[in-house]
Design brief:
- The chain is an alpha+beta fold.
- It is built from seven helices and 13 strands.
């Protein structure tokens, strides 16, 4: 699963991202380096200080640990049982409307050996840390650990990020020449007929949205690799229609089907239950 933030700037959308100062951004990067150094030094007391009083940690299996003391105790047990080294790379910082906080995202790797068994440890994954400021210092309010992105998830992630940068050719590049693009029938102002091919998607979907909508912001997207060749994207969005002035704040889901690294089909749904039912 992968989480990210997307604002369709190529469609003339306005961004609702909150601004953080360069000093704050540098401080959050510094916290990442301090965390890695404390873990590798076995200093679980220092790690505890990096979490807020009501912090939550969720691992890749969904296990939830609440409170800095409990989180630090779990980390201390890891440090006691293993001779391990942690590498953390913070890749981006985004604003989450849902959590009303900044979220630092990146990758991690833990390698080494257990203290009892001579078995190599090599664990990699992704993380998303919700960041809050307490007494002038940035701390981790929620930490979510995720499995590494699969190749298909990486393709869809790249497409969304290309949108965010306004890079239309890069967004179209992973689409198969015969891609079939279907919008949800009940989705507001959607075209009921499928679009076939990247050019049709560009001239039909992207151009229409850019012309009809004053802004269209998608936030807190989660990507799930499902059924081997499909990626399910669940997301929240807010938008304003130009002609009617109507604003929307709702949820939707996208189901992408891939073959050999190319997107061959797209289906839009008004809710995640419909999307999950369509997975075969």
């Amino acid at each position: 699963m992968k989480k990210l933030l997307f604002c369709a700037t190529l469609l003339g959308c306005t961004t609702l991202l909150q601004a953080q100062s360069p000093t704050d951004e540098a401080a959050m990067h510094s916290l990442t380096r301090q965390y890695m150094a404390a873990y590798n030094a076995g200093d679980h007391a220092a790690l505890q200080e990096m979490y807020t009083d009501d912090a939550v940690r969720i691992d890749t299996e969904g296990k939830r640990i609440e409170g800095p003391e409990s989180i630090a105790a779990a980390l201390a047990e890891q440090l006691r049982a293993n001779n391990a080294t942690l590498l953390v790379r913070q890749n981006r910082l985004r604003w989450s409307d849902a959590e009303y906080a900044f979220v630092a995202e990146g990758t991690y790797e833990v390698y080494g050996t257990p203290n009892v068994y001579n078995i190599a440890i090599d664990v990699t994954g992704q993380y998303a840390n919700t960041m809050l400021k307490e007494d002038g210092e940035w701390k981790i309010a929620k930490s979510v650990l995720m499995d590494p992105a699969t190749e298909n998830v990486a393709v869809i992630d790249g497409l969304y990020q290309a949108f965010a940068k306004g890079d239309i050719p890069a967004a179209l590049e992973p689409m198969d020449a015969d891609i079939v693009w279907n919008e949800a029938e009940s989705f507001p102002y959607a075209d009921k007929n499928p679009y076939v091919g990247p050019e049709a998607v560009l001239n039909g979907v992207f151009a229409r949205i850019g012309a009809e909508w004053e802004y269209w912001n998608l936030t807190d997207i989660e990507l799930h690799d499902v059924s081997g060749n499909k990626v399910l994207a669940t997301l929240r969005y807010n938008a304003k229609h130009k002609a009617t002035g109507k604003t929307i704040d709702s949820q939707t889901a996208h189901l992408w089907t891939l073959r050999d690294g190319k997107i061959i089909a797209f289906q839009q749904f008004t809710d995640t239950k419909q999307a999950a039912a369509a997975v075969r």
